[in-house]
Every structure is written in C-alpha cells, then in structure tokens.
Amino acid sequence: MTQHSIDRPAATRSFTARDLASIATFAALIAALGLPGALQIGASGIPITFQTLGVMLAGAILGARNGFFAVLLLEVLVAAGLPLLSGGRGGIAVFVTPGAGYLVGWLLGVLVIGWFTARLLPRYRVLPALGATALGGIVAIYLIGVPWFALSTGTPLWVALTGAFVFLPGDILKVVITVLVAKQVHRAWPGLITPRGKSARTEPISA
Amino acid sequence: MIGFYHPGHSLLHRAPALLKLGLLSLLIAVTVALQEPWQLGVVLAVAVLLAASARLPFRALWRQVSPVLWVLAIAVPIQLLFADWVMAVMMGGRLLIAVLLAALFTLTTTVGAVLDACEQLLRPLRRWVDTDRIGLLLALTIRSIPVIAAIVGEVMEARKARGTQGSVMSLAVPVIVRSLQSAEALGDALIARGFDD
User: Do the chains contact at B102 and A73, CB–CB below 8 Å?
Assistant: First the structure.
C-alpha cells in the first residue's frame, strides 16, 4: 500500500479524503434533487427542476474545483446509463439532444459561482453574492445552452433565447435560494471554501 | 441502482463498449456530414435494423427517444417557417438518428461496462489521473444517492410536522447541513482506512 501511494499521480494526490467525500456527496445531492420529478414548463423538452439549484449550491458551498467535479461526476454517471437526471432521464442519448448544452453549461456555471464565492468569503455579502450566483447560475449556463439549442435544432438564436426565458423566473428564484442558503451555511460552517482575494488577506476575520 | 440496460445476447450486447462508443461517434459524425435526405433515410434504416436485431422492447426505446420528439415538434415547424422542408427534414433526421443510436448504446451496455471503457480511455493519462481514485469516487457517489435521498425525505417530513411546508429555505438549509455532516463522516471513514497516507 505504501509503495502504491508513493508513485500516486501528483494531480489527484491533491484531492484529500474530505474532498472526495464532499464531491461524491454533492453529486448524490444533485441526483437526489431530481428525484421528486420534473415540473415541466412549456413544451421545449427541457424540464425545470431543483437540479440546477443543486448545481448552484455545489459552486456556492464547495467552491469551484470540488463543485465542478461533483457536477462532472453526476454527468459521467448519467452518460454511463443511470437515470439520475430529473424525470428519470439518463443515458448517453441525453448528451446528443438539443438540451445537452445546458448540461455543459452547468460545468461552466459551477466554476463561475465557485470562483466568485471564494472571493466574496469570509463576509459573503448578499448583493454581490446574488450577482455572482446569477452570473454563473443563469448567464454562464444560458451562454452555452441557448446557442447549442439553436445550432442543434437550426432555429434562429432569438427563437432559442425566447424559449429559454420561460425558465428565467424559476432560475432567478434558485439564485436567491442558493445565496440565502449559502449565507447561512457559511456562517454556521466556516472553512468550506478557502477565501481568496484582497479582503480575505487584509481584513482580520471578525466573527 | 438499476440503469437503462436491457439484458440480451445479440451482437450489439456482446460487442465491446469501447467499439460501440467509437461506432456511435463515427455514425453521428457521418449524419452531420450527409447532405441529402435519402442518405439519412439509409442511416435511419440501419439504426432501426440494429434496434430490431438487439430485440429491445419498444417501451425502453421510446423512453429514451421520446424527449427529443417534443423538441422536434417545436423545432420542425420553426424550421419550415424560416427555412425549407429539406432543412427541416435534415435537422429532424439527424437528431432522431443520433438519439436512437445513443439509446441503442445505453440499452445494450451495462453501467459497469461504460465506466470500464472510460477507465480504458483515461489510461494514457495515467501520469496525471489516478483511475483507482476515480473508481472509488464513482462507487461513493452511487452509494451516497440513497443516503442523501433519505435525508431529503426526512427533512420534508420534519418540515411537514412543523407546518413550514411553504418555505424552500426550511428544506434547503437542513438538507445541505445534513449532507455536509454525512460528507464529513464519509471523509472520516476514508481517513480511518488510511486514505490520506
């Protein structure tokens, strides 16, 4: 065993047992949030669910790296043939449908949210956090999802964008929930994400 | 955890997952390159023949293919509005074929076989990626899903008992905190088994 751990690759050695445990747990959480069943709005085939809430929470609570791998892990299991997306969807077919861009968008979204959250901590003021979470949880996801849908179906970009706006109210609600939850969780459980940025270094932590 | 796999002994069932994955990518690339509707018709016929040879139940196939039909029901009329019928047929045909072929792959390949194929694909990257840890991570996630689902269920019941059903916060905060506690226990268990050594 010790022989094995010496020549373990450097890149994955930087993942501690706690990292792996939280990545696996959040991947499972995103899957569990899809279980009650999708609430289908409109007929564009992209159901609105609490799973995007799980994606936003992964970024806001685990940070960019671990949050990213939690989402990636869930998507690998989906592609492998497990029905873990809302409404019991799954299989590699999900990744060739016009909605697949949103799944790729999740990966960018979680990175954006995690990057900004690390810079907003330890204070995590609500207004900047709302902006950062909306940037990752809405703008980044739509940025990939909408053009992908347009390209895949051959519809004009504005038609795809109009269709996407159906999900906007739900997504705004999820952004607000994510920030309020993350605020409470970071206060109750400091140290989940290592704060980066100016304020973290100069200001003494006052709590 | 039961996936979409449907047991069988056909050629498709017995073919190696990596080969099927390669053929799937190749066929999808071919459909993108094709320009004539009749050529797509040939590929579609091949896909349907493959499905018939694998003796897959119609319902299992339908479950995989039907979501894209909803998209097509919207997108095809839009195409007819902005472009001509050839474009509409090509777009619809490509999507239908891609989803049908992908469904054939998923229905004839076990989750374990797909994950093994992924591990084989990652093997050249061994210097940077520890495939053993990825395998452990996949297993931990599959094991965590029922645990987290039980947490969500318990919190929903507790919420009902306290009469705070309307509030999403009273669901989300306890679910996250208890999930983090569960992750911590899992991390401790891994450390206790010498994982970080």
Answer: no
